[in-house]
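Purpose: get a first structural picture of the assembly so the mutagenesis plan has something to point at.
Setup: two entries, given in the order below. No constraints added.
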Amino acid sequence: MKTQPIDQFAAHLSHEVHTSVRDSSVKRTAQRKDALWKDFEDPNALRRLAGQIKQHTLDHLDTYIEKAESALKANGAQVHFAADAEHAQKLILELLHKRNATRVVKTKSMATEEIHLGPFLEKNGVESFETDLGEFIVQIDNDHPSHIVTPIIHKNRKQIARSFEKFGIPLPNDDPESITKAARIFMRQKYLDADVAITGANFLSAESGKIVLVTNEGNARFCLAGGSMHIALVGIEKVVPKDRDLTVFLNLLARSATGQQLTVYTEFIGGPKGATQPDGPQEMHVIFLDNGRTEVLESDCREILRCIRCGACLNVCPVYRQASGHAYRSVYPGPLGAVLSPALAGSHFAALADLPKASSLCGACNEVCPVDIPIPDLLLRLRNRAKEERLPSPGTPPLGGWALLATRPFVWRMAMLSTQLLNLLPLHHLPLPGLKSWTDRRTLPEWRGGEFRKWMKARKGKSND
Amino acid sequence: MTDSSSDTRKAILERVRKSTSLLPEKTPYPDYPNDVARSAPHLQEENPLENFRKNFETAHGIFFDTVSKLKEYLLKENFRVGFCDPALLDIFHSALAPEIELTTTFDRSRIDVCAFGITRAAGAIAETGTIILNDETTCTRLGALAPWVHVAIISPKLIHETIGDAISALGKDPNTIWATGPSKTADVEGILIEGVHGPGVQACLFI
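Result (structure tokens, whole complex):
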């Protein structure tokens, strides 16, 4: 039988990558649990609260976008809106051209990954460097991130050292410390030479217009100390109503993502630099990005827009652990990606419609989600959509017969009765190779179909007495 | 805003409005207390400064009690040249000279000349051991970021107990940075390395 694309990818995954992804995911999941349960009496109550704040925001998103826009403008930022990836690329290029900018430094941002900004800038003659270490390695390798928090989870030090040398960064050895030091030295001048810093946003407070960026490496700080213009590409769902809500989200984000109490650097950006400050952007632009989000908001999968990109659902997912992030063939991997990628795909839904099937529906993703997204329910809704659109479903056994049985009680009862005949068949002696390979080593238990219904009927009778 | 952006704004807001207006019921904004995410296990000491110190050291920060202990550390590590906020020069010049040289301008063309940077901080968070920097208080973003060691000078009066308290006090500053320990990464094989782009040593001194 033909298997699903994700199974095919997993089947050919190298042992090295599989081990690295699995071990790292297991470790991160344990760190998350420790950080949350040691620090809070009831982390689940906090997750539900965060989910409610986010859902409230989505249910009133028009109001909060307008509030955020006003606050950003009051802070001195210029605000733009982009319908899709192409439009966002065009707006960014226009801003760069207006400033005669040819050198850009970038922080890690899933929104910029979504619009393929790096390759687009390169094609248009703009030198652009990813400054997060993992993203930089992905860039010089012409690769793609395989995890939204740890983008090079699929690479080891030897591969990274080879990439550095190929790119022209000398290394004394392949120790992680040497790799990090070399990146530090290389990137410093890039920050200072850059005309423009491009970032995403972890959150945007509608109340104060502050953009919140979190990093562990300090690259966002450096980007916003070196460059003279700041462009932030912000998905419309990143808005939160009030500054106080950030308390809930920041406490949950770091613990869920990396098991830290707080990410090393949390930066609150409320406009261009202060008048007496010598370093930092004099000009700030915020681009609100739709790129399919309004369509998701209209759909029955709108809850996925609560996502704060912590990666906890990836780390805990048994399918992700076996298949790795690249198996999802899209910017967003794991359970989050299995919902968000096809949901954002618009008219290209069919190309990613198999992803919602890459799940055992165990529910672990929902249990760890810091904003309590009912991911298994959303996966089922997308499976239903694929079925309604009559899309091909490789790897799914034909279930028409089962549907007939399960929806007609009379047919079910007849089937239960007739399957008693199985006990009379000499299964061990049937000349069917597939069956024989099973029955040679195992003894099929006696078929007892229908017993439960009998028991239930008898029990009902008793309770009525 | 360009015409295309202006049209898109209208289209996005209309589409959002239409989809939210169709919802049978809308989720209300939850009522929750300000200390909802207060982490009691991180606040077990007697006073805010002790809580801060404990959590700051857990985050691999170096806490100096006195200027002379800072000097001892800088000499031991052979950090002889550093940047100092001009407003702090009177205190540190007399305490660190003549063995240690201080400069009060941070030259962006020679960012690796200074081994350390001493700048004022706008506050601290006891719950997380975080120091708070902003444009108003920290005289240069680069001076607090580029050197290997950053020494934040903080007033004990400016310690916030929790993250929530520090958020309430954010104010209007265009750039507030919370730093919780040294810059770090675990991108390569999950191995923790300190000192990626920012300071490899985050220190503080309360004055």
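Chain A touches chain B through 102 residues (CB under 8 Å).
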